[in-house]
Amino acid sequence: MSGGSKERIERVAADLLARDGYNGMGLKAISDGASLPYGSIYHHFPSGKEGIAVAAITSMGSHTGALLAELTADGVTDAAIHAMFGFMGERLQRSGWTKGCTVGTPALDGAAGSEPVRDSCDAVFSSLVDTLAQALERQGLARADADDLATTIIAAYEGATMLARTRRSRAPLDTTAAAMCRLLRDALAS
Amino acid sequence: MSGGSKERIERVAADLLARDGYNGMGLKAISDGASLPYGSIYHHFPSGKEGIAVAAITSMGSHTGALLAELTADGVTDAAIHAMFGFMGERLQRSGWTKGCTVGTPALDGAAGSEPVRDSCDAVFSSLVDTLAQALERQGLARADADDLATTIIAAYEGATMLARTRRSRAPLDTTAAAMCRLLRDALAS
DNA sequence: AGGCGACTAGAAAGAACGTTCTAGCGATCA
DNA sequence: TGATCGCTAGAACGTTCTTTCTAGTCGCCT
């Protein structure tokens, strides 16, 4: 079978978080999805639901971070931005518009109920913004400007994901990506 | 007491949706918050939880839409954009960074589980985009450009709200608002 | 006065939830 | 061989959830 039990749990949890959020993620669904007996879950994650969510968010975050770093290794280009937004469009469409962002969904519905969940989402967002900002700095942007643009792009990315999901259309992602490209061009020009 | 029972239920539900999402919203919490006996809820909303959520989302949406229309009556200005983003910053900070967007939160965590919820969120988003786009058209933008910019602003607004909430800081909202102003200036200039 | 509809009030039911517990299996190591 | 450890396996528990149901209360209309 693919991967250890712990990794399977994390992967299934990540999918459930993306679809139903932290409150909607059930341990029964995790054990079913991971083809694992119910009791095994608490063996791998003694901290229970909260620990699983944090692990899934953190793991998915570092994976996404690596992808983003690779994508922007040669700088933040129009192609990189469209690839980034297009990636989520593909993911959404292929899942029947149900699989949103593994970080964004619990960031909204779980932040008030669990401090560790909020904290791990914050860490992922900060890391993504940082990765983007560093690439922008390499392109000549001042640190503050790079941070601001990176924050805007990540915010637009999460928001466009939300709109695309509720509208069941990639259009908001494509539109927003194009706007981010305009913002990028202006920032690099000055 | 302030308002009828139905309105109180909607208001409490809107707060719970904003904080805990659709899956995290409990009917018990609604009856407590509205100072209403548990059974009364099903008298006012025979359709149960789903109906309450849809009503709260729709009501909050039309209220927000009216506010946005008023704010952009003289066109979409820098001041209007900053007021819009600042409104959410105030709301977040005053609630101890727990009260996010009544539409955005269930849009993510409830869309997969309830089609009516997804649909009502979609309707609100479309209405907000439309309001913004119409104001932009009045300022001379072509319809397609107005739609695109409006979509981007709403997406950025929701995403920045997410970042601000998890980071417990208004900074992402302020930063993103400034970026939207730049985007607006460029669009109006061309 | 009498009846009716709107609303209050909360118990009951049945399912699902997260957590804890005990029992058992199989491999590794003394 | 016997003991130990990692993990499987799922029952049990108490809580919470949504929905439904039955009474009871209040005001209004005829």
Report what the structure shows.
The first copy, chain A, is an all-alpha fold. The first copy, chain A, has a single domain (54-189), classed as Tetracycline Repressor, domain 2. Chain A is built from nine helices and no strands. The longest helix of chain A has 25 residues, at 143-167. The relative contact order of chain A is 0.13. The model of chain A has no long low-confidence stretch (mean pLDDT 96). Chains A and B meet through helix 1, helix 6, helix 7, helix 8 and helix 9 of A and helix 1, helix 6, helix 7, helix 8 and helix 9 of B. The structure holds a DNA duplex (30 and 30 nucleotides).
- The CATH topology annotation of chain A reads as Tetracycline Repressor, domain 2
Number of strands of chain A: 0
Examine the secondary-structure arrangement and name the CATH architecture of chain A: Orthogonal Bundle
Number of helices of chain A: 9
Average pLDDT number of chain A: 96
CATH superfamily of chain A: Tetracycline Repressor, domain 2
Largest interface summary:
A-B, 50 and 50 residues
Query: What would the principal axes of the Cα set say about the shape of chain A?
Result: elongated
Secondary-structure content class of chain A: mainly alpha
Proportion of strand residues of chain A: under 5%
Distance between the termini of chain A: 53 Å
Largest sheet of chain A: none
Radius of gyration of chain A, whole Å:
17 Å
Count up the domains of chain A. 1
Helix content of chain A: over 70%
- Quaternary state, please? homodimer
**Poorly predicted ranges of chain A (pLDDT <50, ≥5 residues)?**
none
Please identify the top-level CATH class of chain A: Mainly Alpha
